[in-house]
From TrEMBL:
Protein name as annotated: adenine phosphoribosyltransferase
Annotated localization: Cytoplasm
Domain Phosphoribosyltransferase: 56-178
Phylogenetic lineage: Eukaryota, Metazoa, Chordata, Craniata, Vertebrata
Catalytic activity: AMP + diphosphate = 5-phospho-alpha-D-ribose 1-diphosphate + adenine
Listed InterPro entries: Adenine_PRTase, PRTase-like, PRTase_dom
UniProt organism field: Leucopsar rothschildi (Bali myna)
Pathways involved: Purine metabolism; AMP biosynthesis via salvage pathway; AMP from adenine: step 1/1
GO biological process: purine ribonucleoside salvage
Gene that encodes it: Apt1
EC nos: 2.4.2.7
Pfam families, sorted: Pribosyltran (PF00156)
GO MF terms, alphabetically ordered: adenine phosphoribosyltransferase activity
Main location: cytoplasm
Signal peptide region: none
Top-rank taxon: Eukaryota
Amino acid sequence: MDLCHVPAAREKGWYLALMAPNVKGPNYAWLDPSRLYCHPQGLQDCVADLLQPFQGDAIDMVAGIDAMGFILGAAAAATLQKGFLAIRKAGHLCVQTVAQPYSDYSGREKVMEVRTDAISPGLRILLVDQWVETGGTMRAAIELVERLGGVVAGVAAICMENSEGGKWIQERYKCSHCVPPRLQPHFDQH
């Protein structure tokens, strides 16, 4: 699909076809959404689909998870006319932070951090990332928000796999993703 073509019928998830498969091996995600972000209508429709379940909900801020969650999170924040908070991999913030260790989708041990002055008690945060595979990265972000007294207003990602960690998140928080039910098994079994 070229980056200018917009299909006549734009059902939820039409833009998933813009994603490219991994050609670099097991240290990379199995799909690359960056081409979707290059397509103006695809990006707009993706963000609209992610935000649709949260219409009318109280959201004070959007937080995107390092690094690809920054793209969707900033787009969601702009659409909602809310502020944007970057939840970073450790070592990138030059201000006081709180840190949370986690295991990413590849099983690597990492640390996530967020600035301590951005989340006040009761602030309702929509967490955004491009993908929830095992749930470790999103769960670390949830723990950071809640440790600072914030409330997780919801979790949004292009795909939320039905892994143990993905199910844990979906059972406890309002969630949104872009994968139609008929395609979900394909995304879960990559």
